[in-house]
Inverse folding.
């Protein structure tokens, strides 16, 4: 592979990972909106032995565990979410990669019908296997706060 081919491949790989993350955000929000088939599609973005750690919400392993989280738990907690991710840092290493993203999620807590903000970082690993897939996701929450109070008044609340 020439230098220019290698550079183009790196750009294509980074763009594929950005698209993977964008699909993740869209599918989580569609599952929360009441379409459980989108949770099944979402789990297909993960390798078979993938895991996700969502702090106090738990750690979920494999497609079965991830499906419990994305199809059952998240829509049980939230009736609305609009994931926004930005400030990506993507580090490629052959068929593996690492990434981090800042997330902001305006959301509605289902039990109280209360608007809120979730914000933090996703720390991720990816692997190439017939396209890029998630190998792991760790969500680190900076705040989970009621919309009308904001993070300055109440940084964290129990969802």
């Amino acid at each position: 592979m020439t230098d220019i081919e290698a550079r183009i491949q790196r750009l294509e790989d980074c763009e594929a990972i950005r698209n993977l993350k964008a699909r993740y955000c869209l599918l989580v929000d569609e599952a929360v909106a009441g379409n459980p088939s989108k949770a099944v599609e979402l789990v297909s973005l993960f390798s078979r032995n993938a895991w996700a750690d969502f702090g106090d919400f738990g750690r979920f392993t494999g497609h079965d565990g991830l499906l419990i989280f994305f199809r059952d738990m998240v829509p049980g907690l939230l009736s609305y979410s609009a994931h926004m991710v930005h400030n990506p840092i993507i580090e490629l290493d052959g068929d593996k990669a690492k990434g981090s993203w800042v997330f902001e999620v305006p959301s509605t807590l289902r039990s109280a019908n209360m608007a809120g903000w979730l914000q933090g970082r996703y720390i991720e690993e990816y692997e190439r296997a017939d396209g890029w897939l998630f190998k792991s996701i760790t969500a680190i929450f900076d705040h989970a706060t009621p919309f009308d109070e904001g993070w300055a008044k109440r940084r964290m609340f129990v969802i």
